[in-house]
Write a structure and sequence with these properties.
12 helices; two-stranded parallel ribbon; about 50% helix; about 300 residues; alpha+beta
């Protein structure tokens, strides 16, 4: 039986796009379930909790991230001591505007009366969301700052969802999400393997099964992807780019890039770098402009 309906207008500051709070859940069973007219995102940073939903119970553990849609009767109960939970309240209008632009996020913000979406976050992912929440707490409660929190989280979850759909094991999914971090890229295959917590042989077998390549091949492909972006988006020298990606041997860097793009790094830069800050006009346009200026 639901006796309480919470409304965002009574909780949020006027004009605020969200409300964030940290609570220690009590161990007493909720006397009644409650519902709300807003979306709710919460996750456990410590301890265990029990989510009670329409008479059913499920146990939440540290790292469990839950999306609770509007009109969903539920209650939360701490299990044991020190059950710490972070809770973010977001009006349905804010989520509606977000989904109008990014419909793929709808799989997390379920329709009213649907069961909450629950996703476990490993220690690294939990650290990222907790750090982002601290920034959100300190920021103005605007749509801009709310989306600065939501969009990286949604993008990360969508990447993991795609990986799961491809049949990748959870430990490999998590490692691939952070594989493009330059700290990991610099260490190449060793960096990727370290992120999995598995043996190099086990990671190699899994990578061969799912991608048909070794960890070294995969990481070198990612390195060249980022090299192409650095070549066209920065003035960094080839040596600086290679060093950024953890490749100390320039001959090796050139071989990897040539194999990936069928041209040298220098030729790739000449062909693809665009002068968007200080564009260089073609000679014909310069002459035409000069002629017109003289006539004026």
């Amino acid at each position: 039986m639901t006796d309480i309906t919470l409304r965002h207008a009574e909780i949020l500051e006027q004009g605020a796009a969200c409300h964030i709070s940290r609570v220690v859940l009590g161990r007493a069973r909720p006397k009644t379930l409650h519902t709300q007219d807003y979306h709710e995102i919460c996750w456990l940073v410590n301890g265990k909790a029990r989510l009670i939903l329409n008479g059913r119970k499920c146990t939440l553990i540290e790292g469990d991230l839950t999306f609770i849609p509007p009109d969903t009767p539920h209650g939360l109960q701490g299990v044991g001591d020190d059950c710490h939970l972070v809770n973010i309240i977001i009006p349905a209008t804010e989520i509606g505007a977000l989904l109008a632009r990014y419909s793929q996020a709808g799989q997390f913000f379920a329709a009213p009366s649907a069961a909450p979406v629950r996703i476990h976050r490993g220690i690294r992912a939990l650290s990222r969301i907790s750090t982002a929440a601290i920034s959100l707490e300190a920021a103005p409660r605007t749509t801009l700052h709310l989306e600065a929190f939501l969009l990286p989280l949604i993008a990360e979850l969508l990447n993991e969802t795609k990986a799961a759909a491809d049949g990748l094991p959870a430990w490999l999914q998590s490692a691939l999400v952070v594989a493009d971090d330059f700290k990991v890229l610099r260490d190449g295959a060793a960096g990727l393997v370290a992120m999995t917590g598995k043996s190099h042989a086990h990671v190699s077998r899994s990578m061969q099964k799912h991608f048909g390549m070794t960890p070294s091949d995969y990481m070198n492909a990612r390195r060249m992807h980022h090299a192409s972006r650095l070549l066209t988006g920065t003035p960094d020298t080839l040596a600086d780019i290679a060093q950024t990606l953890g490749i100390s041997n320039m001959s090796h860097f050139h071989r990897l890039f040539l194999a990936r793009f069928s041209m040298t790094p220098r030729r790739y830069r000449e062909k693809n770098q665009k002068g968007v800050v200080q564009p260089v006009w073609p000679r014909g346009q310069i002459l035409a402009f000069a002629t017109k200026t003289c006539q004026i």
